[in-house]
Structure formats: structure tokens, C-alpha cells
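This follows on from our talk about sequence and fold. Go ahead and set the record down below:
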Amino acid sequence: AVYDTGTYIIPSYPVAFLPPDSLSDGDYQIIDADPITITVKSVIEAENAELEDIRPPFGLPGNRWWIWAIVATLLIGLAVWYFFFRKKTDRPKALFKKEVIRPAHEIALEELDHLLQSDLLKTGKHKAFYSILSDILRRYVEGRFYIRALEETTGELVESLEQSQIESQQATHAIDALHMCDLVKFAKFIPGSDDTDKTVALVRKFIEETRLEFAAVEKMQRIEPAETESKTVNS
């Protein structure tokens, strides 16, 4: 490597080559290359050869009171944030978290309405629509009757429904809906609007007929025994 201007000579160096008429790869011949003279010139012009001095520090114009005002505002804001954050984190945490358990039919009907509001049928995504519909029905069965509907095949689920305490007519609604969902999902059947309305109606009817009703518990009032009047007999 060259780090200065001037004239330099690249010394001669050996070069190995293989003649074209050689019979084997080992018949290399060596020749010495001629020395090469090079001249290295500077790209800096002569008048700019000297290095310039560094520039002096740049001073801010005017009074700097506004800088201190910004710093003070930031410090005050940081102190206020720390105070409220520390106050919030120092609050005692509840030992138990109150969890609201929603009924299975409420969740299923809400998911069903949300599915009907989607654009899956309008865009021709019947398989996706019926897959979600089948999952809604299976989740409801699992949450309402504690049947492992999400893990069972349709045949196993049909058998579980038939062996459960569900009325046969109600179980038929769910079974017919499951068969239609499988027909669209696996047999590539394209249902019409009437088929879809009928299947959705079966699912909704099954949910509403088998929903778990929560009866209101009347407040029990304690009946105080009547005071017994004592009769005083004057003798």
C-alpha cells in the first residue's frame, strides 16, 4: 500500500503458466514479470494543501432563559408523573379477580348474529361461513352440556347428542345443522340462500330451546314470632 505521493517501482514477481502443448498439469513454467514504475499524485490542489483550522464553537443568539424554562417544565412534569404513578402502583391489589361468567347461549347467539352481519356469503365464502357456524354450535354444546364437541368428529358428536338427556327433537336440530355444515365444508356443496336460512334457523332454534334459564331467587324474609301478650289477673 502507498500512503504518500511520489514515484514508486513495483518489483519483478514470478508468474507461473501452463503451455498449451503440455501433457500434464504439472508442466508449469515460470517467468519473471518486468518491474513497473508508477507515479502517485495528490488530488488536492497546491493552494489547498494546508489543513484548515477547526471552526470556533457556535454560540446561541440572545438570552437563554427559555432553555431553563423548558428544563424546569420537564422536571416538574416528570415529578408529577412519578408522584401519580407511584401512588397508583402503591395501591393494594385485589387478592381475587372478579370474573363474569356469561351463559353459553348468550355467547352463541351473539356470535351467530355477528356471523350473519359478515360479508362471507356475499363474497361467496360459503365454506368459511359454515365452518364458523359449526364452531359456534360446537362451542355452545360444549359449554352448555359439557360434551367435548370441539374435539369430537361429527359422528362422535351425533352419538353424544343422542345419548345425552337432550330431547330427541332438539337433538335433531343440531344434528341436521352439523350434517349440512359438513356437506359444505368437505363435499364442496354450494348451498342456496334457502339452505343457509334453514341451517341458521336450526342452530338458533336448538340454542333457544336448550338454553339454561336462570330463575330469579326471591329474597327470603325472616318472620319474627309474634309477641305473646301476657294477661295479668288482678286478684
Remarks:
- The longest helix spans residues 65-89.
- The CA atoms of residues 131 and 185 lie 7 Å apart.
- The helical segments are 65-89, 104-116, 126-145, 154-163, 168-186, 193-210.
- The first strand starts at residue 6 and ends at 10.
